[in-house]
Every structure is written in C-alpha cells, then in structure tokens.
Amino acid sequence: MAYTTIDDPSAYFQAAIYTGNGDSSDDTNAIVNDGNSNLQPDFIWIKRRDADNGHQLLDSTRGVTKIIGSELSSAETTLANRLASFDTDGFTVQSSSGAFNAQNEPFVAWQWKANGGTTTSVSASGTGANCINASTHQVNQDAGFSIVTYTGRADQITVHQTTNLTHGLGVIPDLTIMKKRDGTGDWVVMGKYITTSSAYSANEHLHLNTTAAVSDAEYTGYYAPTSTYIRLGDALVNDTGDDYVCYAFAEKQGYSKFGKYVGNGNVNGAFVYTGFKPAMVITKKSSATGNWTIYDNKRDPFNVADTVLLPNTTDADQTVINFDFVSNGFKCRNSGSENENGTTYVYMAFAENPFVTSTGIPTTAR
Predict the structure, then answer these.
(1) In this structure, are strands 188-191 and 175-180 parallel, antiparallel, or unpaired?
(2) How many CB atoms sit inside 10 A of residue 184's CB?
(3) Order of strands, sheet of 56-59, starting from the edge strand that comes earlier in the sequence
(4) Angle at 41 between CA 37 and CA 46, to 5 degrees
(5) Which residue pairs, CB below 8 angstroms and at least 24 apart, start in 308-313?
(6) How far apart are CA 321 and CA 286, in angstroms?
(7) What is the pLDDT of the chain when averaged over all its residues?
(8) Smaller CB count within 10 Å for the chain: N or C?
(9) What are the pLDDT digits (tens) for 195-252?
(10) How far is CA 36 from the centre of its chain?
C-alpha cells in the first residue's frame, strides 16, 4: 500500500473554479480555496473556460504583473491590474480583463505552494563546463516543488558540455518546465520519462506550447540532473544573458507522480497507478504529435472526467470522455484520444487524497 508523508495534498496543490465579476477597472474578486488546508499559492495557472482566451501563468518570484502564456513562444508580458495578490488561502484578481475576471464568465485556476515568495540567490561562478548559473530559487522540499529564475551562460560551453543551475530541491527533479522570459523561445519540458536515455544524452524534450512529439533537435543538456543541479546545454534553455523561469518537480509518494503509459485502444483502457486519487492530470502524446491536456477534480467532480483544456491552445473547455479518477490512479475510458493503441503518453499528476495516509487510512473512489 502507498503510504505518504503528505496526508493532506490540499496544503500544496489545489484547483479552484470561479466566476468573474469585473465590469470596471477597479473591481476585485477574491478567490478562496475550499481544500482542507489553507493554501497560499506561489504558482498560479489561470484559464478562462468558455472563450478563446490564453493561459495565464504567474508566480510569486516574478511577481503579480509578470505573465507568460503556456501556448506562446513570445516573451513574458508585464500587465498591471490583472492579478492583485497571492492571498493566505487563494488569490485576488481585478479589473474586467477577459483573461482573468470577465463579468459572469467561468474560470479555472491551478495553484501550487512553494515558499511564500521567499527566495535564495545564487551568484554566477566559474567558467567553462560546469560553471554555475546566476539564479534564485524558492523551494518547498516537502512538496517537491521549486520555482527557479536564472540567467543563461551558453557562451561558457560547447556541445556535450553543460552549465549548472541550482534548484534547491535536495533530491533529483523528475520533471522540469522552462521558458525564456525576455525573448522568443518555446517552453521546454524535460524529465526522466521523456528521455529514452537515463543519462539525458539524447537531449530529448517536449514543447509545452506545441503538439510536437519528443524532439532531440536542439542541445538542451547532455546529463541528467542531480540532487543539486539541473544541467543546461547551449540551446533553448541557456542562451547567453537571457532570463528564464523554471518550474522543477520531484515526485512525492501519495502526492505527485510523473510517468508514462502506453494506450491500448480500448474503452476499458489503460490504468495508470499513481498511489493517490488525482486532483489534476496533465497528459501529452510523446511518441507522435498531439495536444497537451489538463483534467481536474473541480471542473469534473464526478467520473467520468470529460472536461479538458489544452495548454498549447487558447481553446475553451472541450468535452472528451477520457478518464476515471480512482482511489489510486486514473483509468482511460476512450478508445482514442489519450488511449490510442500502442501510443506512448507522458503525464503529470497531483493528488486530492493519498491512497493510504501515513496512519494507514485508505481513501475512497469517487
């Protein structure tokens, strides 16, 4: 049975749905989470559900005015009067912005806790291969989550060399999501279930803002991360002098899981064991082109989970029967889509409840 040190995942991750109230420039709308624990988020991902509005990603390291779209390769934008604050149990949006608070319109927000906005700085040091990138990180080691901002140093290295980015997790990250902030560049997603090489030597990665399959066309890094560093190559994630953000995740039993599965093309589809009842599942076909997908327990509080948003597009909610969220994982309920026969998918999942708590109490299916 899957025991855990995180009995209440809502202390570290929650999804929230809300209705916008904005009809003038000074309207505010405080969104209060409804989980068992108060959650002051440090990373918020907001999407309007009924319209062709972009995804809005913000964090407490970069601040309330700095926004990046998951579907975009363009640089970070600075917009005031969108997110007003990160609150003790939620957040506040303001204005009548169509992407944050349009009057009477539905929204969803996925939220992760890091370290309350408190960061640790690391200075650039050394030269050549294995030099250190200048960076800041705010970390929640209990939840296996780190927000890292850093400056590229590709001028120090050549092919098959790397620079070192400090992540602060204290363990090896299982998944990293990176984006250039001050210029055009795709989102780059790397992890042990994306690469076919345990050493990362194939440079394999996905792009959050595209439908592309796993690529090794750019040199993103030649070595696996360590418990101290993410190893950065000389392309996409480390351009000299450019600014980046990185969201780094490490699995925590009963709370988070990052992996892959192979579809069977049957409505009695593949089952993916996570060790918890999911609150959120993100998937991507990795062996061929296909959209990223997000499902959660707030837009679909009961099975089947069939309300999906696509991180690589601005599309509104779509209805596709895909998953049952069960007490210890998720099960595909579609013969296509996220369960094509012989197709490999990667996934990220975060918990609503662990399958078995630290005291041996099991959760129930929904």
Answers:
(1) antiparallel
(2) 9
(3) 13-19, 106-112, 43-48, 56-59
(4) 115
(5) 309/47, 309/49, 309/108, 311/55, 311/70, 311/71, 311/208, 311/209, 311/282, 312/70, 312/71, 312/208, 312/209, 312/210, 312/211, 313/71
(6) 20
(7) 93
(8) N
(9) 776 657 678 899 999 999 998 877 788 788 999 999 999 889 999 999 999 999 999 9
(10) 22
- Tell me the two tokens of residue 241: 């002098």
275: left (phi over 0), alpha (psi -120 to 50) or beta: left
Where do the structural domains in the chain lie, given as residue ranges?
9-112, 119-252, 256-354
What is the pLDDT, as a whole number, of residue 357?
A: 64
Nearest to 220 by CA among 235, 202, 241: 235
